[in-house]
Design goal:
single chain; 2 domains; 4 helices; 67% helix; 0% strand
Length: 95
Amino acid sequence: MTLSGRISPMHDASGKAAAAGLRRDPQGQAALLGTQALIGQIMFFFAYRFAVCAWLDPDNYTREHIDFIADTLIPTTSASLGLPSDAVGAKGTLA
């Protein structure tokens, strides 16, 4: 994984989302800190996905499980950026 090929593009995209949600300058300290918080949430969930999948009963992992994850995490992630939970219009099919 290279900084310029993988990390920087993800950081830049996340930074734009954080800056928009926080209504801040993308290069400002508040947006940079919000970016790190957003990336931290993503990385933590990815690192511990095995535990989440085990909790959700991996033998019966269904579309409903994916929707449950999306319906739960989208509002909390949006809220961390100061956005209303339906701001992005994304959701699982359960809602």
